[in-house]
Design brief:
Elements: E1 3-14, E2 19-37, E3 43-60, E4 67-72, H1 75-81, H2 85-97, E5 113-116, E6 119-122, H3 123-128, H4 134-137, H5 160-176
Antiparallel strand pairs: 1-2, 2-3, 3-4, 5-6
Helix pairs in contact: 1-2
Length: 182
């Protein structure tokens, strides 16, 4: 399945910053037809990948024109601007599934340890806290296959039931937040 969504969030004034923000999020679900290895060591011939990109525009005060304030992987900025539960869920999906075909590690490596700025922790925990990077994990090796962290991109398959829920949610968001509909 190939599908795209365009979500235009309503303007939001943030008094602490004296800025009004306008945000657009574009999402693409694409069926890839190529041989790849998954994070569970399986070889697949096709899979679904999700990609998210955002644009944040802002202007100072309550009047004036909008200017570029951020974009690309700006989900943290969007989460800070909008407290709405559905926007927070969108950000969670973004953080969980964005470019699910570019994973640097297999499932086995999640239980391996790395030394971070906050001390020794599991790869899984370091990733969750945003502390994981190539330099910290480059010597982590898969105990089953000998694969080293970041040596090739692996695919994390989106389970069918999760994919169905994601598509329904994004359909709802795109319909709710059409340009000019809010």
């Amino acid at each position: 399945m190939n599908k795209t969504w365009h979500i235009s969030l309503p303007s939001r004034y943030v008094p602490e910053e004296d800025h009004t923000y306008r945000v657009i999020v574009d999402i693409k679900l694409k069926e890839e037809q190529r041989e790849a290895f998954t994070t569970q060591h399986a070889k697949v011939q096709s899979y679904q990948t999700l990609s998210f990109v955002g644009t944040v525009m802002a202007h100072r005060g309550k009047r004036g024109g909008f200017g570029y304030a951020g974009g690309g992987q700006c989900q943290d900025q969007i989460a800070r601007i909008y407290a709405r539960p559905e926007v927070q869920k969108l950000v969670e999906l973004w953080q969980r599934w964005h470019l699910n075909d570019l994973r640097p590690d297999c499932e086995c490596m999640q239980a391996e340890q790395v030394l971070t700025t906050e001390g020794l922790m599991l790869v899984k925990e370091a990733r969750k806290r945003g502390l994981l990077n190539y330099e910290l994990a480059k010597n982590v090796t898969c105990p089953k296959r000998g694969y080293r962290f970041g040596r090739e991109w692996l695919v994390e398959i989106i389970p069918d039931d999760a994919l169905e829920l994601i598509v329904k949610f994004l359909d709802h968001m795109a319909e709710t937040y059409k340009k000019g509909a809010h």
